[in-house]
Amino acid sequence: MTDARELMSQYLTQRRQMGETAYMGIAGLQNANEQPASPTPAKSARAERAQPPQPTTEVTGEPKWRRGAPPIPPAGIVVPTPATDLFTGDPLAKHDLDQLGNVIRECTKCVLCEHRKQAVPGEGPMNAKLVVVGEGPGATEDDTGRPFVGRAGELLTDILKAIRLPRETVFICNIVKCRPPNNRKPLQEEIDACVPYLYRQLEIIKPAVILAMGGTAAETLLGTKQSLGSLRNRVHEFRGTPLIVTYHPAALLRNPNWKKPTWDDVRIARQLLDQRD
């Protein structure tokens, strides 16, 4: 005669084979308020390999240049737009950007014209949102007639690319348009003779932000003799346009320690551009 326990065991086995996982035996009735633990069988090596790789960092959609970018700093020097003199006409006011470039190439207002191979008016689109201003052309620029095309220019191109601004979308120029001998700092009379060209370029382009690279550019545009270090970390204003001061790319080649602060400065300029879009 078959034992009752054996019959019950056979019955339960049949129910499980039929797929009834919710059926509870006597032990289950005793623990009706407890939830059975879900089995977690170990995956085979093949199953592990079949799983797609999981991202190790959260995807936020934030551009890489913004990560760790400094906040926009407080206001600095304000250079107001000069009052219009109704009785004195500006001879440069009638020129567009291309015509102004031709005037610069023929300029003989200071002694720098005596040593140049060619003047370097600047380059970039008339609707550029960012204007980069340096000190003056170097040897390669004097040879080619283009601004920032030597080693410093290559570094500038990389910096602009890193903040998602292709070089061809930026207007790039200098305080003086002819190379000073031996790359010396321009004399004040040379700056005074040349800077009206820059003012007219800025008037035509009407950029959203100006990036002054180097002490000469900062001092000239802001009308100050303050050190470059003291002019950084401020949002200055030149005739209604925000202006950020940073190191010249040529200085970064001499002193790599200035690369990090320069990277912070250009990211501030990029944030200002985003605000004005």
**Global shape:** elongated
What oligomeric state is this?
single chain
Could you say which structural class the secondary elements and strand pairing correspond to?
A: alpha/beta
Mean pLDDT: 85
Radius of gyration: 34 Å
Tell me about the largest β-sheet.
6 strands, mixed
Distance between the termini: 91 Å
Q: What is the beta-strand fraction?
A: 5-15%
Strand order of the largest sheet: 1-5-6-4-2-3
Count of runs of 4 or more consecutive helical residues: 11
H/E topology pattern: HHHEHEHHEHEHHEEHH
Structure description:
With 277 residues, the protein is an alpha/beta fold. It contains 11 helices and 6 strands. It has helices spanning 4-17, 26-30, 45-50, 97-105, 139-144, 151-162, 188-205, 215-222, 228-231, 249-254, 259-276; strands spanning 75-79, 130-134, 171-174, 209-213, 235-238, 241-246. The chain has a 6-stranded mixed sheet with strand order 1-5-6-4-2-3, with helices on both faces.
Please give a handful of descriptors for the protein shown.
277 residues; alpha/beta; 11 helices; 6 strands
What order do the helices and strands come in, and which of them pair?
Layout lengths: L3 H14 L8 H5 L14 H6 L24 E5 L17 H9 L24 E5 L4 H6 L6 H12 L8 E4 L13 H18 L3 E5 L1 H8 L5 H4 L3 E4 L2 E6 L2 H6 L4 H18 L1
Parallel strand pairs: 1-5, 2-3, 2-4, 4-6
Antiparallel strand pairs: 5-6
